[in-house]
Amino acid sequence: MRIGIVVHGPNIIDSGYALKLIELLKGYGDVSVRLGGTMGRTAVIDASLEKVIDISKKLVPSDSLKIFHDDDVDVIFLLNYGKSNVTGQVFGYKVYNHYVEKIADNNVPIIQIERPGEDDGSIIPWNNNMDIVKELSQELNLAIATPEEVYDNHIKQDNPGFNQRIVHGVSPGENIMVNSVVIGKTDSDKLTLIAKDNHIVDIIGGELKEHGLEKLGEVDLDSAIIKTGLLRKAKVTPRVISSDKPNEFKITFLDHAGEDVYKFRDSSVVVTVGDDTTLISSDILYRFDVPIIGITDGDLDKVVEDGFKVKNSIIFEVESGFDDIVGKDIKRIIFNDEQESYDYQNIDEVKDRILEIINNINCKYKISYIE
User: Fold this and answer.
1) Rounded to whole angstroms, how far apart are CA atoms 180 and 224?
2) Which of 31, 33, 101, 168 is least enclosed, having the fewest CB within 10 Å?
3) Cα dihedral 80, 82, 84, 88 sign
4) Which pTM was predicted?
């Protein structure tokens, strides 16, 4: 039997269950494994699992499922470790339905293993109740949840025509991230986002952050990737790996954490704009020994437990609301509105040019050097 495995998110990897389940499923046939999503990449690197889990492409989980479908495997497993059984099962429901929209025939069994090792863990046969489901349920001590149960308990709404998105399994005081942009904070264990004309206009169970909504712009609420709380909870020791750098000094520009930060791994330095973008990207780029020059305004929402930064990185903290203004001028003046430049010889030259830009804008700032 040919088995495809899609691993989603850092928690299933950090818990050790991704590797345990991969080894277990090898007993049933030939196994191929790939990542679905972005944040799990750092967990794969830190666990030295690049030769086990394919992280070569940035793919949403439904696309990873589709690749295995197109490879004509016999069964596909989706491994996930959500904050709760509710968030995990709702995640699986959405991934499975996005996947179904991308394929012509739905003839490959999709089986989700959710929160293994937890009392509320489950195994969900989304489209085919194979014998292996019952066997794994008993071996892993996981309850079997049917797709109908997931829909009835978590998805069905009284007003299906209303443009809203219920976010399950939240806790008060958590950041709300939509497509990697922090747009607010929860103040309840029940959260609903409300959109009109592809813009989020209201929230139930939290408080919106106007600056975040401006950065987010238009959004399809049904397909948006929504997360609350920390993107990665585990305390980890980051693994630094070598990365090929160009002979020339290459600087790149990053103003949105939703971009594929891993494509910047060959940069000499990355200029990042925004507190959360700087925190997330510097943490990832630490694994590739790439320093950053961050433009922030002190409006930080904690989205990872520890934000690692490479030695010699530089952080500019400007007046509130000026980070985007400075960022636009940097992109125009230093990068000629492109994403990369080879016009500078070292990080100090870049720093000095940014200082000129900030001084011309005439806003207050302070500089922090990472030693």
Assistant:
1) 10
2) 101
3) negative
4) 0.68
